[in-house]
Amino acid sequence: MRHDRFHGTAISLDRARPRPRSHPRLLRRGGIGGGDGPARPRRDDAEAVLVEHYPRLLRLAHLVLPPRLGRHNRVLLAHALVQNSLAGARRSRPGPRVPAQGGSSNQVLEWLQGRVVSAALRAATRTRPFSVRPLLPAVLGLRLFPGAGGAGEAALDRALGGVSPEVRAAFALLVLEERDTGSAARLLAAARVREPAEALKEAERLRDAVGRDAESLLQGAQFDPCTVQTRPTDLLRRRQRTRLAALAAVLAVTASGVLVLRAAPATDAPNLAQGPAAVSTRATDPQQLVRAPAQRWADTARVDLTMWPARGTRTDDTNLLARALGAWSTGDDRSGTRVIGVAGTPTDPPVAPPRLLYAGTVDGSAVVLLYDEQRVARYAEPLVGAPAVLELARADDTDVTTGAALVVSRAAGTARFLLAPWIDQGSVRDLRRPDLPARPLTVSADGATISVPAVPGDCGRVPVVELRSSARIVEDHAFLLADLGGPAPAHLTWTPGPGTGAPARQPREATSPAGLDAWARSACTLPALRDSGVRAVNRWEFARQSLPERGGPADWTCLRAESWEGSARVTVALEVRSGDALPVRGPRPEPVDTAACSRFGQHMLAGTYWTAPSGARYYLAAGSRHLSALTVRGAVSATARGPALAVRVEGDGPVQLTGTLPDSARHHGWGEQADTGSEAAQGRR
Fold it and tell me: What is the DSSP string of 51-107?
């Protein structure tokens, strides 16, 4: 058993002895799915191997199942599929026998893996999640889910959620089971995957994009359905269901009829069994607001917005809370409140009681901050004059940094932040002046800061704070947050370039002297991102090049702004010693989403024309550290070994820029038709 502190009790399921009974809705009798897999083993042999490799098989099933099932149902269904995989085994005959008669343990394991993959693929293709809900194992009164992983595990989980179940199965066989392509293809074919080769090709592209950390990430807590966390279901709803069940039983006895009631396991989504009206009533009742205990954040492994206690001087003002909830539920038409959804955030009313984070008077307005685990709602009601405003923005999957502060008030180029309870220190930064020390930030007893002024300048006004987390959560480190509009500020990070000894795929906090100096050159790009729902912005110096004619060093930079819904905007530029930045034309049309400049898009190549102080014209190109050669064709024709190229030209015109990776795959330059990724590592977009 592993004892992780996370909402409730950590329980281990990998020692549970599986029951050999099958459920007809989940598995069909017979072989793996065709007749091409290993021979059916005897049931006692299969059960022995299953018990021995239960955690391994469980990870395999859990990885193939789609996230849309919800964490609770996904865990239970994975256990059901593995346990029910014994259904196709041959009956064991009584009497002594030689162990070899049942086949080797490797063959039995391969047979079980095929059964699990086949069943998980069938379950993943069901269009109605409740149709694959397992009868056994059943858990009543609790929700089960794997522990929270790190940023890498979360990114990989999102990437896997965006591919087909067949690709997830192929990825699991290649990375988790360490199978070669041939054996993985045979197992997928036996599981009735129509195009195993295509699934394996996509899985290999994903594995190349993740890099050498893929196996260790899959072994992390987020992909481990054996050791799970527990949390109670909605206790009030459970009481109501119990009363309804008792009433139904009385009616059944009175009518001399037969009535069978089955309580469905709780899912991640709210239960709408009471109907929309009942849910809406509970969601707009101030007495039903969820409030976290004051010190819960200091004794949990989940450090995010759900751990914020309710703070402020008006947390007991029922009338104010009712007006805020009413505005969220009824919108502009009936409440008179102006409702704003930042960057297309849905303004639908909450379907369950949200969490109360703050209620107080700030800068002449009554302010309420609410959170429904997907969106932050900031209700601001001026004490005199103007109508109230409700602003909604995405804020799901927050963590120590992205859940460290919210903007509680904004006026005249200033912002007032509400800091998370795990923040020990705060200061104000001028991004354009990294040489200036940070100024201490005054914070009230309820966590609200003084007004943070934006630094005036020609390139805009963006308030930036540097925060340091508490040693009580063993996360004693500093990080930068910038107010780019909306209730949630953006996290600023920095990825050093080649030659610094830092892996290209690991963004760092930008609070070091080198990180602050790097962001000083990109500070003026931030105002363009305002009100676009940005979650985090990372600056990556993917290449350094010596300019011709002793022009000095120049940095090729990639700025990646990720939004809360998962999309990203990428801008590439060449920064020369004079401080000028030459933007590199991006793809047209601009991609809605791209993996470029992320840990899943670690290869970068860009080129642009540059005029030397002498007036001579050059075409410059450079790529990230893994590119071994560059080729440019079109208006310029040249080839260079290594990741950089500089060639003198007489004019300019369109070019086709490609680079070569160590495995001889080609990578296209940024801004070209195939620039959204290399043929080897990026996959289809």
Answer: HHTHHHHHHHHHHHS-GGG-HHHHHHHHHHHHHGGGGGSBPPPSS---GGGG--HHH
CA–CA distance, 570 with 581 (Å, rounded to integer): 15
Buried-exposed string 18-50: b where 16+ CB fall within 10 A, e elsewhere = bebebeeebbeeebbbeeebbebbbbbbbbbbb
Q: For the segment 598-655, what is each residue's pLDDT rounded down to a tens digit?
A: 878 888 999 999 999 999 999 999 999 889 999 999 999 999 999 999 999 988 889 9
Question: Residue 59 is encoded by which pair of tokens?
Answer: 């990870």
Quick check: helix, strand or coil at residue 29? coil
Q: Note the maximum CA span of the chain.
A: 100
| Tally of CB atoms within 10 A around 412 | 9
The DSSP bridge pattern shows strands 389-394 and 375-382 to be antiparallel
Q: Which amino acid is at 120?
A: A
CA–CA distance, 320 with 330 (Å, rounded to integer) = 15
pTM, full prediction: 0.62
Distance CA 184, CA 190 (A): 10
Retrieve residue 337's tokens.
Answer: 């409140």
CA–CA gap between residue 308 and residue 356 (Å, rounded): 9
Instruction: Quickly tell me which residue has 């905007």 as its tokens.
Output: 569
State the pLDDT at residue 213: 74
- Phi then psi for residue 328, to 5 deg, are -65, -35
Closest alpha carbon to 353 in 285, 294, 305, 307:
285
pLDDT in tens, 391-417: 999 998 899 999 999 999 988 778 999
pLDDT band at residue 446 under the 50/70/90 scheme = very high
